[in-house]
């Protein structure tokens, strides 16, 4: 298994995995991913913010990172953080703890770039996903009703998101399972 940046040769596979993830989401959740903008993904690849896990010469999983996520994290965006987005796993490799591997890689990447936090969000209040991400090492910070979603992918429109964080300096936030605004 190896983790590396995606390349332009991976774009079709990235979108295939997004489609498979969306189909899976439709069987379990009311909110699912829209079709993502190809230019957005091409930009992530060019900026080396799109990642992949390779197992047996196959793309097992993809995701994107950024150092900036102001519409979702609002004033907390000022904190030094790496944000993880759009984890999509090849169904052949489900059950291989790939998110845990992404988390370990993201922690290393955050330290390399002098970031204190590793963060991610999901749309909605999904107890199963909340339990899964906390099992992977994240603290669940609670729910946030997004104020401005202009420019975000369509699944964020009028959404409440679950916020997750790993504090690399070890301070654990208070877990809040109630919807709140910041």
From TrEMBL:
<keyword id="KW-0808">Transferase</keyword>
<dbReference type="InterPro" id="IPR000182">
    <property type="entry name" value="GNAT_dom"/>
</dbReference>
<dbReference type="Pfam" id="PF00583">
    <property type="entry name" value="Acetyltransf_1"/>
</dbReference>
<dbReference type="GO" id="GO:0016747">
    <property type="term" value="F:acyltransferase activity, transferring groups other than amino-acyl groups"/>
</dbReference>
<feature type="domain" description="N-acetyltransferase">
    <location>
        <begin position="1"/>
        <end position="159"/>
    </location>
</feature>
<protein>
    <submittedName>
        <fullName>Acetyltransferase (GNAT) family protein</fullName>
    </submittedName>
</protein>
<dbReference type="InterPro" id="IPR016181">
    <property type="entry name" value="Acyl_CoA_acyltransferase"/>
</dbReference>
């Amino acid at each position: 298994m190896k983790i590396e940046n995606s390349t332009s040769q991976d774009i079709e596979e990235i979108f295939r995995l997004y489609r498979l993830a969306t189909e899976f989401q439709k069987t379990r959740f009311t909110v699912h991913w829209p079709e993502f903008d190809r230019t957005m993904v091409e930009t992530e690849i060019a900026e080396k913010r799109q990642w992949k896990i390779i197992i047996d010469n196959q793309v097992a999983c993809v995701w994107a990172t950024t150092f900036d996520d102001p519409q979702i994290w609002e004033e907390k965006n000022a904190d030094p953080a790496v944000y993880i987005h759009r984890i999509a796993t090849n169904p052949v490799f489900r059950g291989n703890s790939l998110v845990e591997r992404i988390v370990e890689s993201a922690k290393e990447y955050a330290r390399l770039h002098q970031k204190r936090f590793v963060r991610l969000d999901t749309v909605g209040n999904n107890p199963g996903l909340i339990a899964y991400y906390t099992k992977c090492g994240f603290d669940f910070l609670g729910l946030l009703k997004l104020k401005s979603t202009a420019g975000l992918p369509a699944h964020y429109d009028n959404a409440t998101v679950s916020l997750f964080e790993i504090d690399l300096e070890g301070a654990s936030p208070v877990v809040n399972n109630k919807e709140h605004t910041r």
